[in-house]
Specification:
single chain, Arc Repressor Mutant, subunit A, 5-stranded antiparallel sheet
């Protein structure tokens, strides 16, 4: 993401220094006594100071807002890290050589040592000798930015019997923004001897995919289809998934994994009722395994028609200021989605999604602010054109024309650049001078 502005604006104190310098020069001239030339210079400096104030106020406001957005974006990233720490599944962080950097509480319990005693030790030290080569290959792949296939290995925790665990590894980006990974984040799913990949493997793998998505490189519209695809892999009990942002009765944005899901979404929106709407309004997970005969939503049941969907689960996506939207899971007749395991997995996935969506929204806001700032920086030519028009129409001097623009801006409580744009636009439209600006 490029948030750079014009080089002259990169120094936040330039306007203040110019104003102080001009004020000092004005005081000096006034103290020397006023001849005609000095009076003209004082008037020019006063006009220049007013122009600087107008520009400085706009730029300072934009810079403050951008700084606030950058801080908020950092907070969202910290929220993702806190979510990793709070996960009930083991999560480890290693450097590019496979040395342990950090472990959440669940990982510390898995390896049988507190996080501070794990730091610096190689991950393979906690893996059975027969499986160490597999883990080393995974480390090598993450070191070059590739996501390796999950692998089930025998772990050898300190002070506890060996156990089987399926490891999912994803590269972690360097802090400097370099494409070279700084290491890898590992998710572990403890399995029983007869349980292949483990019941939570799909969820862990999808969570790893989620936090690897780069929200800074795409808009929300770009991310939502990817999130819906990952959700389908995370929650295999559902045949279709939809992500809705905003009130489902008037959604701001949505992404559905299939036309079937789109049809059920539309039925809920048109009926203004259903699990999706209720989940948004109540901030609770709402589901039904018999949507067509559920007495809570009779209008929706009539609108479903022949759509081959009967089971559904609406999961609210929380944000810092409330509910951002809803993740909808759909299943065909005979499917069961409204069960404690599916609810728990869906809620965890929605928690991870919320941080990503908020980060994406803030990045988009930051881009918009950057566009506004660039607009402010290129508005000077329009102001100069407006001054020229007033000079030609009313015989103003350049200074009087600018003072007139400032007065109109203050009187109407409209930004100076918008007043100037209006004047220039009228001239271009009518190919003649405007009748009045007062």
């Amino acid at each position: 993401m490029d948030t750079r502005v014009d080089d002259s604006m990169s120094d936040k104190g330039w306007v203040e220094r110019e104003l102080v310098a001009m004020a000092g020069r004005l005081d000096e001239l006034r103290s020397q006594g006023a001849d005609v030339s000095s009076q003209d210079l004082v008037a020019e400096l006063e006009t220049a100071m007013e122009e600087l104030r107008v520009t400085g106020e706009e730029v300072a406001a934009q810079q403050r807002h951008i700084s606030d957005l950058l801080r908020e974006s950092s907070l969202v990233q910290a929220t993702v890290e806190r979510l990793v720490v709070a996960m009930p599944a083991p999560v480890l962080l290693t450097d590019v050589h496979g040395g342990l950097l950090d472990a959440n509480p669940a990982a510390a319990r898995l390896l049988g040592a507190p996080p501070e005693r794990l730091r610096g030790k190689p991950l393979v030290a906690f893996v059975d000798v027969a499986d160490r080569r597999t883990v080393r290959v995974m480390v090598q792949e993450t070191a070059v930015g590739r996501t390796p296939q999950p692998a089930t290995v025998q772990m050898t925790p300190r002070g506890a019997p060996p156990l089987r665990a399926t490891l999912v590894a994803v590269p972690t980006p360097a802090d400097s923004g370099s494409r070279t990974p700084a290491g890898a984040r590992w998710f572990a799913d403890v399995t029983t001897p007869n349980d292949g990949g483990g019941s939570g493997l799909a969820l862990l793998g999808s969570f790893a995919e989620l936090i690897s998505l780069p929200p800074a490189h795409g808009t929300g519209a770009d991310l939502f289809p990817q999130i819906a695809e990952i959700a389908e892999r995370a929650l295999p009990e559902a045949s279709d998934v939809t992500i809705t942002v905003g009130d489902p009765r008037q959604p701001r944005l949505l992404s559905s994994s299939s036309q079937r899901a789109q049809a059920v979404d539309a039925a809920q929106y048109e009926a203004a009722e259903g699990p999706c709407v209720e989940a948004f309004l109540t901030d609770q997970v709402v589901g039904s395994d018999d949507l067509r005969h559920d007495p809570r939503w009779p209008t929706l049941a009539r609108r479903l028609g022949n759509i081959p969907v009967n089971a559904t689960l609406g999961v609210p996506i929380h944000g810092e200021a409330g509910v951002l939207g809803v993740m909808n899971l759909y299943g065909p007749p005979g499917a069961r989605l409204d069960t404690p395991p599916v609810r728990a997995h869906a809620a965890l996935f929605a928690r991870a999604t919320s941080a990503l969506l908020e980060d994406s929204q803030r990045v988009e806001m930051l881009r918009e602010e950057a566009r506004h700032l660039r607009q402010a920086l290129v508005s000077r030519p329009e102001i100069d054109q407006a001054k020229g028009i007033l000079m030609a129409r009313f015989g103003y001097s350049a200074d009087d024309a600018f003072r007139h623009l400032v007065a109109v801006s203050q009187k109407r409580n409209v930004k100076l650049r918008d007043i100037a744009r209006d004047i220039v636009g009228k001239v271009q439209e009518h190919r003649g001078p405007p009748t009045s600006t007062g």
